[in-house]
Amino acid sequence: MEKKVTLRDLSEKLGLSTAAVSKALRGHEGVSEATRKLVMEMARSMQYKGISEAKAEDKQTDNIYIIVDHRELKEPHTMSTYFFIDNALKAQGLEVSIHGVPIDGDDRAIFSLIERERPLGLLLFGRFSPKFAEELKATGIIIIVIDYDYPSLNFDVVMPNDYQGAFTAVQHLVRAGHQQIGYIGDRKLSPGFHDRYNGFIDALEYWGLVAVPDYIYDLRLKDVYGKVDFSPLIEHLDTSRLPTAFFCANDPIAQVLNNGLNARGVKTPEEVSVVGFDNLDSSQWQYPPLTTINFPREHIAQTAVDLLFWRKQNPQAPCRKILVHPDLIIRKSVVPPQKR
């Protein structure tokens, strides 16, 4: 069976960006007439069947595609968010399907699918390379980015207010009486993690507390293969010098910390209180049940769907970045500090 020519194939053959090729094929402004003719000639010679001179972008289906890192397809965070997106779209009489691709976007199948099916919109969930995101944008399909941000690209974005969530977590610890508060995370992992780190630091300053370097573990949690692994963090922890409480950048980190401390004879929350972020279902079954910042999945899902329909009606309007305020879920992993 002959392999279908994709937008990326044309781009590589011509030595142009996918965005420039897409504009030329669609008759949009931003490319010269000479470039437009060159692209059209190459498209004909390669028998490109995607976006035609007849502007095939008008022939859209009523499907919505969620694109997510293929390694996270079965993650609780992913599936819970997908559940709420599916409910919101079904209420509008639309179908949604989820597609896992590598985070670097090196998967031609997804571009072939998009060009063939022409979905109504794409929901880009999580972190991908800017190059992949730019190539998706070049398809001309409406894209809403969820729980991530691409500062160099012009996208509509819906995400939790990570900065405010971290600030709220520290506030809760301070009101419980803690003055020695530590942090565990990786601020380079994503813009959201970076905002959580900044919220933690600014909250300490707001409450007149010192950010003690020995209490702050800004780790690199992504390995050379791009996989995120939280388990090694306990190896970096100096149990001879601990704060009375930790704010962790997400629930998996908090769970690893909690289990690691108890394995080393440090009781939680009696000796060290712990707060996480995301409110995964598993956090309530920890011992002790984990106090955490709730990732407002249902509200984010509904907001993303509403934004998609708004964008369809307002294609030329400036892009929006909507921050949804997360709330604190109080359980039993935080108590007033006690003398060791």
Automatic annotation (TrEMBL):
Signal peptide: none annotated. SUPFAM superfamilies: lambda repressor-like DNA-binding domains, Periplasmic binding protein-like I. Keywords: DNA-binding, Repressor, Transcription, Transcription regulation. It comes from the Bacteria. Residues 5-49 form the HTH lacI-type domain. It holds the Pfam family LacI. The keyword DNA-binding applies. GO terms for molecular function: DNA-binding transcription factor activity; transcription cis-regulatory region binding. InterPro entries: HTH_LacI, LacI/GalR-like_sensor, Lambda_DNA-bd_dom_sf, Peripla_BP_I. This is DNA-binding transcriptional regulator CytR. It comes from Paenibacillus nasutitermitis.
